[in-house]
């Protein structure tokens, strides 16, 4: 079955969703790239949490019998994408497909998960980030604060974060997402190709729209390896990120995109003038359509950590 939702990507779903009655209040989505354990083993780990369902996100190049896997696990579905599909594209579709309001996303390989007793509910926030550590016990930073160095946005890891602390960035795509709020703000921007800028734009946009991303260390994910070095090159992805966030101005409670931002950011990102102008026009229209949703400027958001 090939279907298209808000995303332009085509995908195939293997397996059927269960009756929405008598299921738990959260689903689990696994981005399967870089797995060291078998999918069967990961499903066993996830099933200990008693989720409503487990969704594996695969690219077509994955070589295993997905139909057989699903036939052995009634709570499992597999969504297959083209090899070129980014994590943001896959998650936009999978979170829309999920049957639960809250969706635990696990980015790549992991060896254990612990979930707190009772429910984790955050009706007014877009996501919750978990405590993460390697299987040898080294903590992976989960909470970040923004700061500016020579007018450039930098992220500072916050040690000894406590429950309820807010973070400006998702350290990976892992976390528990509030599906309703995720869809309300538009999910990940699929036109931003670099994962670092895609996640940071998503997070800043959430805050600019009046939502938050909070830390909950009682959710623990043990991963197979430390995260790799991400591409933070200021090129096309950065340019689109900048126009949608840092360049936005709010005057008289109305958001707008000054023309000067088009010139300055295009020079820094080293993009062509044709690309820069097309992006500026598109995002200026997007900001106009969402002018009532954008409550804070990125500058006002960053002041929250002061």
UniProtKB/TrEMBL annotation:
Gene3D superfamilies: Spore Coat Polysaccharide Biosynthesis Protein SpsA, Chain A. SUPFAM superfamilies: Nucleotide-diphospho-sugar transferases. This is Glycosyltransferase family 2 protein. It comes from Rarispira pelagica. The lineage of its organism: Bacteria, Pseudomonadati, Spirochaetota, Spirochaetia, Winmispirales.
